[in-house]
Design goal:
By secondary structure, the chain is an alpha+beta fold. The chain is 34% helix and 24% strand.
C-alpha cells in the first residue's frame, strides 16, 4: 500500500490533469468553435420563415398608384394573458376591426394558445397605439400590406392580393412574376415557451428583392368617371352586370376599363370569382345591332354599296328559310342605305350582307378581329365564336349581319370600332405602357402597334358619316354630347337560352359603341349593360351612359393623342367657329338635309311629312360645327321666309326655293345678283320668284371685289404707295 503522501500526490495530479482537459475543452467550445455552436443553438431555439419581398406598384399614366405596398402594423394577441376577452372584443369592434361577438368567441376558444392573429387589415397607426396602450397582451407586428387607391372602381382591372400573398385576377395575376420580386429568409429565435429573446429576435439569412412596377395607359380620372356613371346605370336599371371601356382609337390606348359588380378590396365576402373577372375581356356575348358595321364595311369595301343607295326593307318583315321571319323594331320601306343603319333595320343589314356573300362577310369579320384574341394584357381573354361559312345554315349570313349566331367580347368591339375611327387601321389594345425595374429604370416601353388595315380610309370616312347619322337621325340620339359630335351604334340583343333552345323574350343585352368627334375621333367608348330590368334598348339604356361619360371625359382629352386638361375655347374662338342655322322651311327632306350639311351642321328629322314646317334651334341661331338641327316634317302647304340667294349658283339657289317656286323666272347666267321676293319676306307655296344672274355674281367674285375696293380706297387715301397697290390686286386675282 502506497504511503498517504504518494496517494495524495497522484490524486492531485489527476485532478489537475482533469482540470486542464476541462478547461481546454471549454476553450475549444467557447472560443475556437463558438460560431459553430452558436448557429446550432440558434437553429435549435428558432425557426425560419420566408420574408416576403415588397411588391411592385401598379401606376396609372397620370402617376396615380392604383396598387402599392405599404408597411403597417397588424394586431395579434397572447390569449393566455387576456384577462377580459369581452372588453378586448368590444374595443376591437369600436375600432371598426370586426364583430365583438366574433372576436370574443375566438379569444375564448383559443384561450390556451400563446399567439392568435386578430386583424391583418390596414389599420390606422393611431388606432394601433390606442389599443396596445390599453391591452398589454396585444402584439403589434409590422407587415407589408397592399393598398388599392381607387377601390371598386379599378379592382377587377388591377386584381387583388389575399392574405397569403396570392394574386387574384387582373394585372396582379397577369404580371405576378414581375411585381412580386424575390423573397428573403429570416430566422426567428425563441425559448421552449415560444418567448423570443431580446436582441436575438431575428436573423436575416437572405435579403428580399423588391418587385418591379408597371405603368398603365389608364387615366385614373377617366377610370373613376366611367365607374361612377356605369355604377349608377347598373343600379337604376337593375342590371345583373355591366362594363365600360374608354380608348384612344388612334393609338389603341385603354384609358379606362370598368366591370361591375366588382370586389371591394376591404370586404373579403365580395372577392368572388364572378366579381374578380374583367367582363369586357373574359365574357363573350351576342352583340346584336352594333355588329351591323360588319356588313356595311364589307359592302363599301367591295364597292357594292353607296350611302344614298335605296334599300327595300320590306316594311319590317322578311321571310327567310330555316326559321321565323326577320322583323324590325322600327319598320320601314325603301330607304337610303345610311337610314338602314340609322333606323337599325335587321332586314336591310341582311340584304347588304347578301351583296358580299358568305366569304366576303366572313373575311371582314376576321379583319375586324372578331373570333381572334386581341392580346390585351389581362388573364382569361375570350375569343368569342365566329363559325366558318362551311358551318352556316341557310339563314346564318342574314342573322349574323345583325349580330346573332356569333359572339364577341367588349375589347374586340372597342378595337373594331376604333379601326373605323382610325381611318381603317386596326390597333392592338395598349394597356401596359411601361415596365420598370425595382430601381425605377425602364425595362420595356411599348408603343402603339397596328395589327392590320381593315378598310380603305375612304370607306372608314363613309362609315363614320353613317354612324354619325345614327346619333343625329336614328336610334342613338341620347348619346349626343353638345359640341362634341358623337358617332356610334346602338345594340339591343336577345340572349340565347340554351336550356330552352331559343332566344329569350325577357333577357337582353343593351349596348352602345361610339366615338367623338365623329370626323376626327379623339376618344371611343363602349357601354354594355346585361339584363336591364327597365327599358331593354341600347338607345335608351346604354347611350345615355355613354353621353355622360364622354361629357365628363371631354375636358381631359386633347388633340394629337395627348391627355391634357384642356380648357374650353375662348369666346372669340368659339364664336368664330359657329355656323348659322340656314333657312330650310318648306324644303323637302333631301333638300333640307343637303342645305344643313353644307353649313357644317347635322340634321335630325321628326315627323312623317315631306316638308319642313319648323326647325329647332330657329333659323339664324349659331351652333358649333357638327351641331344638331332638328327639322319637323309635316304634310300640306307651308309659309316660309325667302332666303338670301345672293352669290349662289342657279343650282344651289333653286334647291332653296324649289318648294316655293318650282319654275322661277330667270334672267342672265352665272350667279344670283338680284332676287324677288327680297330676303326675309314671307313666301307661301306658289309664290312667283324672279332671279337675275351674272358671271360676276359668285361669292368668290364678291370677295375679290371687296378686297379690290378696299385696296383702291387705301391707295386713294395715301395709305399705300403707288407700287404696292397693283401688286396686291394681282396677287388676289
Amino acid at each position: 500500500m502506497l504511503p498517504s503522501r504518494i496517494r495524495f500526490g497522484l490524486a492531485g495530479g489527476l485532478v489537475a490533469a482533469l482540470w486542464v482537459v476541462v478547461m481546454a475543452r471549454a476553450f475549444q467550445l467557447q472560443v475556437l468553435d463558438h460560431d459553430t455552436w452558436d448557429q446550432v443553438a440558434i437553429q435549435r431555439q428558432g425557426s425560419t420563415r420566408t420574408l416576403t419581398a415588397e411588391r411592385g406598384s401598379i401606376l396609372a399614366s397620370d402617376g396615380t398608384k392604383l396598387a402599392q405596398t405599404v408597411s403597417n402594423r397588424s394586431l395579434a394577441v397572447d390569449p393566455s394573458l387576456c384577462e377580459d376577452p369581452a372588453a378586448l372584443a368590444r374595443a376591437l369592434d369600436d375600432a371598426g376591426l370586426g364583430s365583438a361577438r366574433e372576436f370574443e368567441r375566438k379569444l375564448r376558444e383559443n384561450s390556451e394558445r400563446r399567439f392568435l392573429w386578430l386583424s391583418q387589415a390596414l389599420i390606422p397607426e393611431e388606432t394601433v397605439d390606442e389599443l396596445t396602450a390599453r391591452f398589454p397582451e396585444l402584439d403589434a407586428r409590422v407587415e407589408a400590406k397592399r393598398v388599392y387607391r381607387l377601390g371598386e372602381a379599378a379592382s377587377s382591372l388591377v386584381g387583388l392580393i389575399n392574405r397569403d400573398d396570392a394574386a387574384l385576377g387582373g394585372l396582379e395575376s397577369e404580371y405576378k412574376s414581375h411585381l412580386e420580386g424575390t423573397g428573403g429568409l429570416v430566422l426567428e429565435v425563441s425559448d421552449r415557451f415560444e418567448k423570443r429573446y431580446e436582441g436575438l429576435e431575428t436573423y436575416v439569412l437572405q435579403e428580399p428583392e423588391r418587385g418591379g412596377d408597371i405603368v398603365l395607359a389608364i387615366d385614373s380620372k377617366i377610370q373613376e368617371i366611367a365607374h361612377a356613371h356605369l355604377a349608377h346605370a347598373v343600379e337604376t336599371q337593375e342590371a345583373t352586370s355591366g362594363f365600360a371601356i374608354v380608348t384612344r382609337p388612334s393609338t389603341g390606348e385603354v384609358l379606362a376599363m370598368v366591370s361591375l359588380p366588382a370586389p371591394n378590396p376591404h370586404d373579403l365576402d365580395t372577392w368572388t370569382e364572378a366579381n374578380l373577372k374583367m367582363r369586357a375581356v373574359t365574357d363573350a356575348f351576342e352583340p346584336g345591332s352594333i355588329y351591323k358595321v360588319v356588313p356595311f364595311a364589307a359592302a363599301f369595301e367591295a364597292g357594292r354599296l353607296a350611302s344614298e343607295e335605296r334599300i327595300d326593307c320590306m316594311d319590317g318583315v322578311r321571310e327567310v328559310p330555316g326559321g321565323r321571319p326577320i322583323r324590325d323594331d322600327h319598320p320601314c320601306g325603301i330607304v337610303p342605305a345610311w337610314e338602314v343603319m340609322a333606323k337599325s333595320s335587321n332586314i336591310g343589314a341582311g340584304l347588304i350582307a347578301e351583296r358580299v356573300g358568305a366569304e366576303g362577310f366572313y373575311r371582314m369579320e376576321k379583319a375586324f378581329g372578331f373570333g381572334l384574341n386581341s392580346e390585351v394584357e389581362l388573364p382569361g381573354e375570350g375569343r368569342g365564336r365566329i363559325p366558318e361559312p362551311s358551318a352556316w345554315s341557310l339563314r346564318s349570313l342574314v342573322t349574323q349581319a345583325f349580330g346573332q349566331e356569333i359572339s364577341c367580347t367588349g375589347i374586340q368591339l372597342a378595337m373594331a370600332y376604333g379601326a373605323i375611327a382610325n381611318d381603317g387601321l386596326l390597333m392592338k389594345p395598349l394597356l401596359v405602357q411601361e415596365t420598370h425595374a425595382a430601381d425605377g429604370s425602364v425595362m420595356e416601353r411599348r408603343e402603339p402597334e397596328a395589327v392590320r388595315r381593315v378598310m380603305r380610309p375612304a370607306v372608314a370616312a363613309a362609315m363614320r358619316t353613317i354612324l354619325r347619322g345614327v346619333v343625329t337621325e336614328g336610334t342613338g340620339n341620347a348619346a349626343e354630347v353638345e359640341g362634341f359630335g358623337v358617332a356610334g351604334k346602338t345594340g339591343t340583343a336577345q340572349k340565347y337560352v340554351k336550356e330552352l333552345g331559343r332566344y329569350s323574350k325577357e333577357r337582353y343585352v343593351a349596348s352602345f359603341v361610339g366615338f367623338a368627334p365623329w370626323d376626327d375621333p379623339e376618344v371611343l367608348c363602349v357601354v354594355v349593360l346585361d339584363e336591364p330590368r327597365g327599358s331593354i334598348y341600347g338607345g335608351s339604356v346604354s347611350a345615355p351612359v355613354f353621353s355622360r361619360i364622354l361629357a365628363d371625359v371631354r375636358p381631359l382629352v386633347g388633340g394629337h393623342g395627348a391627355l391634357a386638361s384642356v380648357s374650353a375655347p375662348g369666346p372669340t374662338d368659339e364664336e368664330g367657329a359657329r355656323r348659322a342655322v340656314p333657312e330650310v322651311l318648306g324644303l323637302t327632306a333631301p333638300s333640307a338635309r343637303r342645305v344643313v350639311q353644307e353649313c357644317g351642321l347635322m340634321p335630325r328629322f321628326e315627323g312623317e311629312g315631306d316638308r319642313v314646317i319648323a326647325c329647332r334651334p330657329p333659323v339664324g341661331a349659331r351652333l358649333l360645327p357638327g351641331g344638331i338641327v332638328t327639322l319637323m316634317m309635316d304634310e300640306g302647304t307651308v309659309e316660309g321666309t325667302m332666303p338670301d340667294l345672293t352669290g349662289l349658283s342657279l343650282r344651289d339657289a333653286w334647291l332653296r326655293i324649289e318648294t316655293f317656286s318650282p319654275e322661277p323666272q330667270l334672267e342672265g347666267e352665272g350667279w344670283v345678283v338680284w332676287q324677288s321676293p327680297a330676303p326675309g319676306e314671307p313666301v307661301p307655296v306658289g309664290t312667283p320668284c324672279q332671279l337675275r344672274l351674272s358671271p360676276d355674281g359668285s361669292q368668290a367674285w364678291k370677295e375679290f371685289r371687296e378686297v379690290e375696293e378696299r385696296v383702291a380706297g387705301e391707295f386713294a387715301s395715301g395709305t399705300l404707295s403707288g407700287e404696292s397697290a397693283p401688286r396686291r390686286r394681282v396677287a388676289r386675282r
